[in-house]
Design a protein that fits this description.
The chain is mainly α and 188 residues long. It is 60% helix and 6% strand. It has 8 helices and 3 strands; from the N terminus they run H-E-H-H-H-E-H-E-H-H-H.
Length: 188
C-alpha cells in the first residue's frame, strides 16, 4: 500500500506538485480479526494469545517509520506530501478475557489513526492508557511472531486470506452502495 501511495504521489508531483498537500490516505489494519483467526490455532501451545495482531501492528509501524526516512519519501514530503498513515480498525476485543482497551492501549503513536466503536471509546475514557505505546516492546513483538511461526502457524498466509476476505466484503458493500445510488438517481 505504501509503495502504491508513493508511486501515485510521485506521478502527481510530476504533473502538479501543488496538489500534494491535499492528498490524504490511510492503510487499514484490522486488528482483532488477526487474533480471532490465530488465537484458536495457538490453543495448547505455550504462545500467548491476544498478542499476534499487536505484534504485527508494531512491526508494520516500524516499517512505516523506516519508509518515511527514505530519500524518495523525503523528497515528496519536502513538496508537502502527507504520509499514508496506518489506520487501526477492528479495535474492540472479542475475547472477554482481554481488557476492552487492549488494542487501543497498545497502538498509540504519531501519524496513526485509530477507529473505535462507542463501547471501546467509553471503556478507554474510564481506564485506557494515554501515552505513546506503539514503539514500545518492538523486540518482544518480533519474538512473539517468531514463537507463532515456530508453533507452525503461517501468519503471512492468514493475513493474506483476511485481506482477501476483507476486500471481497468491502467490494460487495461498495457495489451495493453504487446500486442504491444508481436506483435513486434513476428514480429522480
Amino acid at each position: 500500500a505504501a509503495a502504491a501511495h508513493q508511486q501515485g504521489l510521485e506521478l502527481l508531483a510530476k504533473n502538479d506538485a501543488t496538489k500534494l498537500p491535499h492528498v490524504a490516505s490511510v492503510a487499514s489494519f484490522f486488528i482483532s480479526r488477526v487474533d480471532n483467526a490465530i488465537d484458536p490455532l495457538l490453543e495448547g501451545s505455550d504462545v500467548p494469545v491476544g498478542r499476534t495482531a499487536i505484534a504485527q501492528a508494531k512491526l508494520a509501524y516500524q516499517e512505516f517509520l523506516l519508509h518515511l526516512q527514505g530519500p524518495s519519501w523525503t523528497a515528496l514530503s519536502t513538496l508537502g506530501a502527507q504520509a499514508q498513515r496506518p489506520l487501526w480498525a477492528s479495535t474492540s476485543t472479542k475475547n472477554p478475557a482481554f481488557s476492552s482497551t487492549l488494542y487501543v492501549d497498545e497502538l498509540i503513536g504519531p501519524l496513526t489513526v485509530n477507529t473505535l466503536p462507542d463501547p471501546t471509546i467509553e471503556a478507554f475514557e474510564r481506564s485506557g492508557t494515554v501515552g505513546k505505546t506503539l514503539d514500545r516492546d518492538v523486540e518482544s513483538a518480533r519474538e512473539h511472531l517468531e514463537q507463532v511461526k515456530k508453533a507452525g502457524i503461517d501468519v503471512e498466509s492468514i493475513a493474506r486470506k483476511l485481506e482477501n476476505d476483507g476486500l471481497t466484503a468491502f467490494q460487495s458493500s461498495f457495489d451495493e452502495l453504487l446500486s442504491s445510488l444508481e436506483f435513486k438517481a434513476a428514480s429522480h
